[in-house]
Design goal:
Radius of gyration: 30 Å
Number of helices: 26
Number of domains: 4
CATH architecture of the largest domain: Orthogonal Bundle
Strand order of the largest sheet: 1-2-3-4-5
Structural class: alpha+beta
Number of strands: 15
Oligomer: single chain
Mean pLDDT: 86
Largest sheet: 5 strands, antiparallel
CATH topology of the largest domain: DNAb Helicase, Chain A
CATH class of the largest domain: Mainly Alpha
Helix content: 40-55%
């Protein structure tokens, strides 16, 4: 059964979009809206906007947008009914039975089948590890000093040498080749047919935060390539927005999380009692993973290998954490390569001490940067001090910047007044960070031909959404049929109906569009940048010109669709020109 509009509206109205998105994205209030870093693409300046008035979000960078339901659907890969249920549970709204439409049922069934296949595969790998064929896998884990309890806790397993071992097992359970392939567990080619994705590997099942198996990582036994292999992206597995071990670490309540490079690092740390450890899934640390961590902590300690690649990964991770609004620290593992080696050699207490001594990310970056300079050469040393000053200019808050100036001066034996002057000098040349400005819409980049004709229509929709009180002025001249684009026309119909009855909310309009791309376009319609207006006269002229342009485009379209021999042709020419002339002479102000 489908949810009624009344139920959907009740759920939406009881879930403020700023509060909901604020659980996933660090938001800062700027004017009437809130801004943060977009969770749907990597960026360094916050172009992600959340409007409490419209109850909508929109990214001026990637143009993703929608309402509170759209956000959860995109962020957590949910269906619309799943998003409604999650928000209903959050707000304490009792829902009728779930959507039982064929489409919704088919999508739920598909996801459940993929989860069932992965669960069965995890069981099979787990079983194989404890069979004679899995002996070498078991020996590998025992050589890494893993206990039976730890292996069971993480569901570790083994994929046999036979290249279609799992496929045969899953098919015996009634699953089809296409389903096994879509689950990311098999491939197909003409030579080998449908065959296992993983074979001759120790297996690490990957769980989501609801303890469901969504994918696997596998380490090859021997010298095969690649050494590590991960499940491909599937409808239930997005490696950029999941973390290995988070299903356990989310309940650690240590006040911080530790992110490592590898699965074995996480497992070794959990076994040693550090159950707040997680790892990225065969990819570099991503913004999506940082936002995921933010649900559970505000502090993340980076524990990467102590080699050059690990250092670079830590520097990159520092930036991502900062952009996500998380506090970051860096763990010093030297002289050992990774947490697993350190714990085996030095033990739990020594590792705890390293955690307590985790380095401030700013000083870590400076320490790494120092390696590029010869501190015995005055010129090189001076340039290093300049680089420090440039880094200090990144602090927007004066008090924070001053505190770091004093600390750096003390750590590097620089006269604090000299360093302060150097920072001021660089800042005067444009070195200080400027407050983030509201990003401009991508609409202007797309302006050409037919799109230029539609711009006034976009502006009018945004203006009405921002200031519903102007609707009475607009409706005297414009109807939904005056919008020449079909999508704009449908949006206008929803708006005009809602405004006429006093029940219009931009967020509600989004729900009338099923297609994801259409939802995105509707969100963009409600977030078109209005013209830069400084005076009341300019505001009145802009308002009048937009209405005139919309009406003019409508008239031209109507005439282009009629032939001269159509009996309606000449009456419409006369009537249309008359209305345009009347409109051009009429003073229309949005503020009267």
């Amino acid at each position: 059964m489908r949810f009624t509009d009344e139920i959907i509206e009740e759920v939406r109205s009881r879930n403020d979009i700023v509060d909901v998105i604020g659980q996933y994205v660090h938001l800062q209030k700027k004017g009437a809206n809130y801004f943060g870093l977009c969770p749907f693409h990597n960026e360094k300046s916050g172009s992600f906007s959340v409007s409490p008035g419209k109850q909508m979000f929109y990214c001026f960078g990637c143009h993703e947008g929608g309402n509170v339901f759209s956000f959860l659907m995109k962020y957590d890969n949910l269906t619309f009914p799943e998003a409604v249920k999650q928000l209903a549970d959050r707000a304490g709204v009792k829902l009728p039975e779930q959507d039982d439409s064929p489409e919704a049922r088919a999508y739920r069934d598909k996801k459940q089948i993929l989860l069932d296949i992965n669960k069965e595969a995890a069981r099979y790998y787990y079983y194989q590890l404890r069979q004679p064929n899995g002996q070498k896998g078991l020996e590998y884990f025992k050589d890494r000093k893993l206990s039976e309890e730890t292996m069971n806790q993480f569901g570790l397993g083994y994929s046999n040498v036979t290249s279609d071992d799992l496929v045969k097992h899953l098919k015996s359970k009634g699953y089809q080749d296409s389903q096994i392939i879509e689950a990311g567990l098999a491939s197909h080619d003409e030579k080998f047919g449908t065959h296992d994705k993983f074979w001759n590997r120790v297996m690490f099942p990957i769980f989501d935060t609801n303890q469901k198996v969504i994918g696997f990582g596998g380490r090859v036994m021997g010298d095969g390539k690649p050494k590590y292999l991960n499940s491909p992206e599937t409808p239930i597995f997005d490696k950029s927005r999941n973390l290995f071990g988070l299903n356990l670490a989310k309940n650690a309540r240590a006040g911080y999380m530790i992110i490592c490079e590898g699965y074995m690092d996480v497992i070794a740390m959990h076994q040693a009692g550090f159950n707040m450890a997680v790892a990225s899934l065969g990819t570099a640390f991503t913004t999506g993973q940082a936002q995921l961590l933010k649900r559970y902590t505000d502090t993340v300690i980076l524990s990467y290998d102590s080699d050059g690649a690990g250092t670079n990964a830590a520097i990159r991770g520092i930036g991502i954490l900062k952009e996500a609004g998380l506090k970051g620290k860096v763990l010093n593992l030297k002289p050992y390569k990774d947490p697993d080696e350190f714990i085996k050699a030095e033990g739990r207490e020594a590792f705890e001490q390293r955690i307590r001594d985790a380095e401030n990310p700013f000083f870590f970056e400076i320490r790494v940067m120092q390696n590029n300079y010869n501190m015995n050469d005055p010129e090189s040393k001076t340039e290093f001090h300049r680089e420090i000053a440039r880094k200090l200019c990144e602090f927007e808050e004066a008090v924070e910047r001053e505190n770091y100036i004093e600390a750096v001066a003390s750590n590097y034996n620089i006269a604090v007044d000299d360093l302060r002057k150097l920072v001021a000098s660089i800042a005067s040349k444009g070195g200080l960070v400027r407050p983030a400005q509201r990003p401009k819409s991508g609409v202007k980049n797309k302006m050409d031909g037919a799109d230029a004709e539609k711009k006034p229509q976009r502006l009018l929709i945004t203006w009405i959404a921002d200031e519903p009180q102007v609707f009475s002025k607009v409706s005297k001249w414009i109807t939904p049929d005056d919008f020449t684009d079909d999508l704009y026309k449908n949006v206008a119909k929803e708006m005009f109906t809602g405004l006429s009855s006093g029940s219009f909310t931009p967020a509600a309009v989004v729900d009338h569009f099923v297609d994801e791309d259409q939802r995105r376009q509707v969100a963009e319609l409600f977030n078109t940048n209005l013209i830069n207006i400084e005076t009341a006269e300019e505001r009145q002229k802009a308002f009048h010109d937009i209405i005139y342009d919309v009406k003019s485009a409508s008239y031209k379209k109507q005439m282009s669709e009629l032939k001269p021999d159509d009996p309606r042709y000449f009456p419409m020419i006369i009537d249309g020109k008359k209305k345009l002339e009347e409109l051009s002479r009429t003073v229309i102000s949005p503020d009267d």
